[in-house]
Design a protein that fits this description.
Distance between the termini: 50 Å
Strand content: 25-35%
Signal peptide: 1-42
Enzyme class: lyase
Radius of gyration: 27 Å
EC number: 4.6.1.13
Structural class: alpha+beta
Helix content: 10-25%
Organism: Streptomyces chrestomyceticus
Protein name: 1-phosphatidylinositol phosphodiesterase
Number of helices: 9
Number of strands: 28
Largest sheet: 6 strands, antiparallel
Length: 537
């Protein structure tokens, strides 16, 4: 078998180049709910959309419309692994080269990247220099902080999360290692040209922490203070608390866990030397799925990057390659393309922080789009509902309660779903809840059940999905098999404004793809229709 050929074979490095499920606990009244991507809104179809082409600078302030009360742990942040690794050849380079002195970071931030991975070495005892292993990346930590500060000053709605790592060993280095070094202090009367200057002294982790503290002081106001005090890791903050700030997610290899944000390293995927692209993709998908399912206010970090000695290089894991076996040439898709397609069309369900090699614009967009549920939808929409602790479902536009309406007949097996003015003490006919079926595989979807145990149902209509505007029923729950007319996807969203938002939900029917809604013509009437309608974006 011949050596596999990368997508980049013969291409020189450029200076500038151009059903996923989400199971969440919504609240005590609602229970758990599933998020699945829709067909609309997919970004990217080609490998180059996911790999090496960051596209246009259209994502400069994409956080501006995210609600202030959104937890950083609930967000999806596109990031770069070894953010400034642009020198050292194919075995070391992990990002497109937009220039030295952290100009590559500047370009990434302008293209929507909001999580960075900075590796530093102490050089001369007085400064952090940026390295990938032994290779100096022609940037210093001052460059990183200066570019980040300039960006956040220009776009104060944004925040940047940084993983900082002391990259090199402490003490004596090997042939392929860098070592932290500080310039020796020569005795009085001897100069730097004397023999004493040829024996640099080892740097300790304490020295690294002390030096970092000096950077924090020199860049006063830049960092999110609770993350850099060194007195203990900080609770996961809200977006309002970190707008315009650089958040230290973690400070690694410094013999201390007293920095950063709690849980930043708790749910982490970083099989950096996975034996194959397929295996790496399996790891990535598994952690992303865990992030989507977990409703706890904790950080998830997934490194989609890998390198396996000289057998498989970073750009091959990211961008894929061609291989030939038995005279047949086949393409192995990279992790970036697979992740882009996996996230295509989905606009809900946090995936956490995703640290990538050579990301493309569509992959970045598909991660950002996962934050759409945190963008308040104005004062309300008839297809968005508030769920209260008394188990009432209140329409966000009309402020009316969904009601189990009159029975069809004396059998009481079903009836109409209506709406009316909400009561100060909710009667049982106003109460609903989301519940997973136990007698069959619900495929992640849920019943919306009335207090009498009946299910919210789209009329069967002789097997043809009914149109928008159709009034809904309550009906006996089908317990023998999956019935899409009774299965709902519950998608968290928000109403209000960026500074004053309320959690709310879209309920999407599995069969019709339409959302639980209200009939505008009867919205003010007691007994008005509860219907299905086109889902809001």
């Amino acid at each position: 078998m011949s050596r596999p050929t990368s997508h980049d074979a013969g291409v020189r490095t450029r200076r500038r180049s151009r059903p996923l499920v989400r199971l969440v606990t919504l609240c005590a009244a609602l229970g758990a709910a599933l998020l699945t991507p829709g067909a609309a809104g997919a970004a990217g179809s080609r490998n180059q959309d996911a790999y090496r082409d960051l596209g246009a600078t259209t994502r400069l302030d994409w956080m501006a419309n995210i609600a202030d009360d959104t937890s950083l742990g609930a967000m999806s942040l596109p990031g770069t692994h070894d953010t400034l690794s642009i020198h050292g050849g194919a075995a070391v380079q992990t990002q497109e080269d937009f220039g030295d002195s952290a100009k590559t970071l500047k370009a990434q931030l302008e293209h929507g990247i909001r999580a960075i991975d900075i590796r530093v070495r102490v050089s001369g005892g007085a400064a952090f220099t940026v390295h990938h292993g032994v290779v100096y990346q022609k940037a210093n930590f001052d460059d990183v902080l200066s570019e980040t500060r300039a960006f956040l000053k220009k776009y104060p709605s944004e925040t940047v999360v940084m993983r900082l790592r002391s990259e090199c060993p402490y003490g004596k280095s090997g042939p392929t290692d860098c070592a932290h070094e500080k310039k020796p202090k020569c005795p009085d009367g001897q100069s730097d040209s004397d023999a004493c200057s040829k024996n640099p002294q080892p740097v300790t982790s304490s020295d690294v922490r002390t030096l970092f503290g000096k950077y924090v002081s020199n860049y006063r106001g830049l960092f999110y203070s609770p993350s850099v005090t060194g007195g203990g890791s900080a609770p996961v903050p809200r977006l309002a608390d970190v707008r315009g700030k650089l958040v230290l997610g973690s400070f690694d290899n410094v013999d201390s866990d007293a920095y950063g944000i709690q849980t930043f390293n708790k749910h982490q995927e970083d099989h950096w030397n996975a034996e194959s692209v397929q295996r790496k993709w399996d790891y990535v998908k598994e952690n992303v799925d865990r992030a989507v399912r977990d409703d706890k206010d904790e950080m998830y970090v997934t490194y989609s990057s890998a390198s396996h000695s000289l057998i498989r290089l970073p750009f091959e894991y990211a961008g894929g390659y061609w291989q030939e076996q038995g005279g047949v040439r086949t393409e192995v898709q990279g992790v970036n393309y697979r992740l882009m397609k996996y996230l295509d069309g989905g606009d809900s369900g946090r995936v956490g922080v995703v640290m990538m090699d050579f990301p493309g614009w569509a992959l970045v967009d598909n991660i950002i789009s996962r934050n759409n549920g945190h963008i308040p939808k104005g004062s309300g929409n008839r297809a968005i509902w508030l769920v209260n602790s008394d188990k009432t479902y209140v329409n966000s536009q009309y402020r009316r309660c969904m009601v189990r309406g009159p029975e069809f007949d004396s059998s009481k097996s079903g009836g109409l779903v209506t709406q009316r003015e909400c009561q100060s003490k909710a009667p049982s006919s106003h109460q609903w809840g989301a519940e997973q079926p136990t007698s069959f595989d619900g495929k992640g979807f849920f019943w919306i059940k009335s207090s009498n145990g009946k299910c919210l149902t789209v009329p069967y209509n002789n097997g043809t999905p009914p149109s928008a505007g159709t009034q809904l029923f309550w009906w006996d729950c089908e317990t023998r098999w999956f019935s899409g007319s009774q299965m709902w996807n519950v998608v968290p969203t928000k109403v209000g404004s960026v500074t004053d938002s309320k959690k709310s939900f879209r309920f999407v029917n599995n069969w019709t793809g339409l959302c639980l809604s209200m009939d505008p013509a009867t919205a003010s009437a007691t007994g008005g229709k509860v219907t299905q309608d086109t889902c809001p974006k």
